[in-house]
Amino acid sequence: MARDIDLRDKISCIEESLSFVPHDMLKSLITQENVEEVLKNTNPKAHELDTWSAAYRGKLASFVIKDANAIFAILLMMKRPRRIEEFFENRLKNEILPISVIGKERPPKVQSRNMHMTMAEDRLRNTFLSSVWEPSDIREFIIKQWIFLSPVLKQSEFEFEFKFDFEMTLPWTPCYSPVEPIRGVYAQVEKRAVPISHFNLTWGQHLIAVKKLTGGRQEKNAKKEADALKLLRTIQSEHVIKGIIYFKKQTMKDSSQTFWHLEFKGEKPELGKDFLVWAVGQLFGLMDAIRMMHDLGLRHGDLKPENILCFPDSSQPGAIPVRLVITDVGLSKAHEKSTSERKEQLREATTTTVSTTRYQPPELKMQRTEDHVLPRCFDVWSAGCIFMEFLVWMLYGKKELLTFTRKTESVEYWEKDDKCFKVRKVVCEQLHAMTQDENCTNDPALVGLADLIKNNFLIIDVWSLVHGRDKNIVSRVSLTRNKSSASTKLMKTSKKLTKRIARVLTNKQRNCSDTLQERYRDTSEQATENIRKIKTEILSRTNGVD
């Protein structure tokens, strides 16, 4: 009797405290021994004693354990465990769930909402039309069923526009280590945990990021981001976010994940070999993930610390069991987009908050009003800004990072005077200070990383700027083509005109440089290879294998 009461109490507590019951929890509660004990204490009537034998109760318990543990748990919540006998006799299993009532007939007409259970409709109706089922009992069963019907997230396919009932609870809960939500102009991202029994994936772990779209254009932005997430699933990199499910719901109690910039604003790290193996390995992984995106024709276009999540992962080499993952691909740009779509995307990318434009390169300023596909080096500049802040934290810790970010928090990493674009003075000063720092100069890997940021990432790409200005001039000349006969002659000279202006602009840019040599920002392929060399050098010192 004590076991029976204990199980009933646990089921009651679950109903009061949880929005859904994980599958593994249900299995641990509804055991053969527990079920038999509950059935034994259901006090059968005198004329039922012959049929209500231990052997029969054992059969019922076996049926429950194998096929109907959710149904039995619902009946326990209703304090009607004996009614499992009707489901057993009519061969009705968990797969009939969820059920619903059709119309307003009396007695209620019950059907399964599982499209594969049409063959069981007669048996289902016979069960619920029996004399022991009052309409109020049926309503209670329908309400209580949802706590056991949270879905399993699958790897086999991206649940694109996942359809589910309004009453269904998706299988995540608040994290044991809560993190403040990340709030942007168009979305909010929070951290959530998924029970292992609801996370049928070979990659990832039980922590996920749940993103809720806010503001205007939710329908359009949701579809755009879902398309990009679906494409990103083809990238074989653990440093790119993997889409699991895309859904629409009138009200969502969602959320998930923390980004590295906040996560790592902690004490100054010990710059030992294990830490460097981890740090450079993560930067390499992020850069390689960007390269893979570029190979698919995608440009992220909004890389910033808030869009790099921090996933616990004990398999990562080095000192910290954390993996950095790129997310928020909602504004990713693809070459295959139509002209109108590219213009709209560019407008969205250039009218977001300062926190977004802070990490964007100067060519965005030149291409602000133009039909221009973002070049690959756009994301490389953004990565350089992020990697620089990462290096500041590595060398100096939280205090210096906060000081540096406050100096640049309302501005981009570049500035423009009357003559040209250039890397902002405070950024140059910080880079110079790091290259002279004893902790940096004593380690070839840190020197290499600082040099990469300075000489390969944060480069004012002259030809990206020239091409934007050049194209704008051609567009203005083209507008006059049909207005007069003189326009034809003007068009013939337009190429000479734009070449001349390009030379002038290039010369101005050169005058701002330390050298007269043209400088180009790394492509993502070059950047990945350069970081790989640093990673290899560190591993060779630690007797690791690349």
From TrEMBL:
PANTHER family assigned to the protein according to its UniProt record, in alphabetical order: INHIBITOR OF NUCLEAR FACTOR KAPPA-B KINASE EPSILON SUBUNIT HOMOLOG 1-RELATED, SERINE/THREONINE-PROTEIN KINASE SBK1
InterPro entries per record: Kinase-like_dom_sf, Prot_kinase_dom, Ser/Thr_kinase_AS
SMART domains: S_TKc
Residue intervals of the Protein kinase domain: 175-458
Gene Ontology terms, MF aspect: ATP binding; protein serine/threonine kinase activity
Gene3D superfamilies given in the database record: Transferase(Phosphotransferase) domain 1
Protein known as: Protein kinase domain-containing protein
PROSITE patterns: PROTEIN_KINASE_DOM, PROTEIN_KINASE_ST
Source species of the chain: Clonostachys solani
